[in-house]
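Researcher: Next sequence.
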Amino acid sequence: MGGMGTAPVAEPASLDRLRAELRRLGRVVVAFSGGADSAFLAWVAHDTLGPAGAHAVTAVSPSLAPGEEADARALAAEWGLRWTPVATAEMDAPAYLANGGDRCFHCKSALMDAAAPLAAAEGATVVLGTNLDDLGDHRPGQEAARARGASFPLVEAGFTKAAVRDWSRRLGLRTWDKPAAACLASRIPYGTPVTVAVLSGVARAEAALRRLGFAQVRVRHYGETARVEVDLDDLARVVDRRRAVVAAVRAAGYRYVTLDLEGFRSGNLNGALRAPSPEESS
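Model: Next structure:
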């Protein structure tokens, strides 16, 4: 497999290879956020290893949207997963709260602090739903997890995000088209401190916009200003419903509401970590 900073060239995704990798590991503790990737991995692990060999664990903290925790719980019940919610303590880490470029490192370290003892007690390996597409972005959390012994079976089996969704659809998993979700702290620009109040405000604003029918949405936090990202196809609809959109976001505590005309981009704020080109800095 290639280095963690660059997506390796891989053969097409193979469900058989994924099952073989899980069997090789023997017993796994799946870091299960309820998103498309981790849900697919949790289902396949359960289907391959059974409940004795696959344990789904959801990290619960203020950085997880309440709706995501509820959906993880619902999925575990629907699929018969052996599931445990575990509290993580990233909010106790000053380096996480400072929100530097290494924030995700401290978040995944907190996840491993909670999951690794469970895995050790079961003779299992912690596995994450990292896919090949994730390897090319700025994700220091991957390094933190790997350094603590975690494994990435989707990468080993050649799965991209599109392949995860395709196989999830084929298997009849309702998460196949679930909008991308990420830690709520990813809505806060690097250098702006992470607080429970900010995370809660972002969660409330996004939940309100989803209730208005915007499935893929991000509310980026800039003090009193919320920068709203939706899919490009939804831009006109946001403008058409601007009064309801503004009311929903203001009810979450923001004074100003702006719409990003470039639309939703996963990892959008990571661009601030890249050095500008000579043309950009001139």
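Model: Confidence is low (pLDDT under 50) at residues 1-10, 275-282. The first strand starts at residue 28 and ends at 31.
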